[in-house]
Design a protein that fits this description.
three-stranded antiparallel beta sheet, Nuclear Transport Factor 2, Chain: A, 6 helices, 9 strands, six-stranded mixed beta sheet, alpha+beta
């Protein structure tokens, strides 16, 4: 009687493993990888990667350009002209390519006007992420935030889980005031 129970248990286990494995192999996902040219003002999607059941990467060309809003342009300029941003990204493109990557870029994750600014979601601040793009992953390296209320640029310190104020060109605040009000 015990051997019959063991045989039935093994058969059900094998059947369950086979059924789960078979179901996962039929899934197909389209993943769009946005690679932003850091010198251009328009983000460009350089490739679409399709992952099929054998996890083979197939590359096709697709270019999509989004016009940045004046407000987003100014906040991005505030970030990219800051000494801290320049320090962190100096030579980064060469280092990423040397490590087998493609490039680095900036993405706007949060914004007070996410639909207007092409941000991923709502935030009281403009939240940027600097990332490195590799064929199999996107590595987020640094996060910055611009608070429109106190007009301050911050770098996120992941170790201390806090925002640190950083220096930036305060002359850009006049442009920001006129474009974003």
């Amino acid at each position: 009687m015990k051997t019959i129970k063991i045989i039935i248990f093994i058969l059900f286990s094998l059947l369950a493993v086979y059924a789960c494995n078979n179901r996962q192999s039929k899934k197909v996902k389209d993943v769009t990888i946005a690679i932003e040219n850091t010198t251009a003002e328009k983000p460009v999607i350089k490739e679409v990667v399709k992952i099929d059941e054998k996890s083979i990467l197939k590359k096709t060309d697709k270019i999509e350009q989004k016009e940045l809003t004046p407000c987003e342009k100014l906040v991005k300029e505030i970030l990219t002209t800051s000494p801290r941003y320049k320090q962190l990204t100096k030579g980064l493109d060469k280092a990423v390519v040397k490590n087998g990557g493609q490039s680095f870029g900036i993405s706007l994750e949060g914004s007070p006007n996410p639909r207007q600014d092409n941000a991923w979601g709502y935030s009281k601040t403009y939240d940027f992420t600097v990332y490195e793009m590799y064929a199999d992953r996107q590595l987020n390296t640094v996060r910055f935030s611009f608070n429109p209320n106190d007009k301050q640029l911050y770098e996120y310190d992941a170790v201390k889980d806090q925002l640190k104020p950083i220096e930036f060109d305060r002359n850009l605040l006049l442009k920001y005031e006129t474009a974003c009000k």
